[in-house]
Design a protein that fits this description.
By secondary structure, this protein is of the alpha/beta class. The protein has one domain (30-428): Alkaline Phosphatase, subunit A (3-Layer(aba) Sandwich), CATH 3.40.720. Helix content is 34%, strand content 13%. It is built from 19 helices and 16 strands. The chain has helices at 3-27, 59-67, 81-90, 94-97, 111-114, 118-124, 143-146, 165-171, 188-192, 217-229, 254-257, 280-287, 294-301, 303-333, 365-368, 395-403, 417-421, 479-486, 501-515; strands spanning 32-38, 69-71, 74-75, 128-133, 155-156, 203-206, 237-243, 250-253, 340-346, 372-375, 384-386, 390-391, 431-434, 440-443, 447-451, 457-461. The strands form 4 sheets. An 8-stranded mixed sheet has the order 5-4-7-1-9-10-2-11, with helices on both faces. A 4-stranded antiparallel sheet has the order 13-14-15-16, covered by helices on one side. Helix 2 (59-67) packs across helix 14, helix 10 packs parallel to helix 14 and helix 12 crosses helix 19 (501-515).
Amino acid sequence: MKLKEMSLTMAMMFSASCFHHAQAKEEKKSPNILFVAVDDLNDWIGAMGDKGHPDAITPNLDRLAARGVYFTNNHANTTACTPSRLSVMTGMGAVSTGCYTNKSGVRNENLFEESIPLSSYLRQQGYHTMGCGKIEGHALKGYDKRYPQTKMWDERLPRSFRINSETLKDAAGYGDVDFYPFPMGGSDIKKHNASYKGFSLCAGPIDRDYIPGGKMPDELTVAWAIDKLHKDYEKPFMLGVGFVRPHVPYTAPREFFDLYPIDKIHVPEDPKGEMDDIPLFGKAMAYGCFDPCDERMVRELGPDYRRKLVQGYLASVTFMDAQLGKLLDALDKSDYAENTIICLWSDHGQHLGEKHSWRKQDLWQEATNCPMLWVVPGVTKGGKVCKEPTSLIDIYPTMVSLCGNDPVSRLDGTSLIPQLKNVKSKRSYPALSSWSFGSHSLRGVRYHYIRYYDGSEELYDCKNDYAEHRNLASNPKYAKVIKRMKKFLPKDKYQPTDKNQEFHNYLDRVDRWTKDPASLPDYLK
């Protein structure tokens, strides 16, 4: 072969090689991410069957579960908004951050030297990051201004909601407009006891013409997100969408309340003697964050109020589910339908009267268990259920495995890739949840162990007692189970400060009730 012909042949071979390399690179394009956070969503989902709520109408959550993997034994690392969302976004739990409650603050001064938020990490991996609604929580408020070199979002919808004088009047000075509007005419609890701080525990339908602008905050959020799915991007994207409902107050447009006739609502079981075997520290948590406590207010308003709250919660869940449906429809019709990971999670669960609790700040199943669903093209199969114990702090390392090129040195969780591929793949340790300094929950496949700050304990056999009505901790038959679970208890690093209001409230209550047993409310005895 002549030199000229040889050079031409080599050039053609080189050109073809570059073409195939570029084509392969295009085929290996990083997947997009739809990252959906839901506030206070418990396991009242149709896909949960008899372990959910018999009245729950959640066609779009069920639809998402049918497309991927539903982690039914998933748990929040902490059972309140701020510390839970911090754990998701940093991949580090409360023991590592020192953030145990909404008011405890972040005790780890080196936190953002050890880790950066998940969306910041993805930006460094070449992602275009967009966020709307409630995702980060207060611990990360202002992060982008403080750390512009590792900011979380390329685009962020400001968290705000149009309000008017009537809306403000209904809310009676409630501080965070993200959770507006309140029921028309205001909270029943506020009307009953004007000095009670927990008056957001209320429910009621809202007429469309009564809502400022005619749209609820979550409807404005999803509209922004859908608009982003209509655009073209040179980079893969992460689109974070945070829904506020079903957080209190339990409000939604009237059409969602109409789905739940009040006389047909099933109220959670409240068996006699429910609190007999609960340690005082657990009872202090059940009492709640406010005085004179939610259960007392609910009782004073009568049995119909209990039913009204359950109706409102269910209506709020179905309202949120409808917004999720709009988002999924938009994704399915977009150019990104085949190459987008969907990760939906709730920051923690929510009590609706179980154990006489009406919030989430405790360590029982209703508070720790939170839905998590994944759809990963080419990895997951539809309609799969994983019953292994998992945690929200597993989200970050999973995203690193799926979408990152660079490792992250400090993460407390473990990648879910084995379970996404095979839902029966075993996990080697229980899911850890913490609430308040020194109190922890460990959930395995079958057993749920709780150890409080003062050393008192609870143990539940969730296979035979999913609702956790029988504390087995004092039964010698289960001593080996407790011994095995105790091996996984963490060592708390950061001591509580005066700002740890919840922690000090629990100590004060236990001390008072110990010295004066008669001061313990009757419904907690």
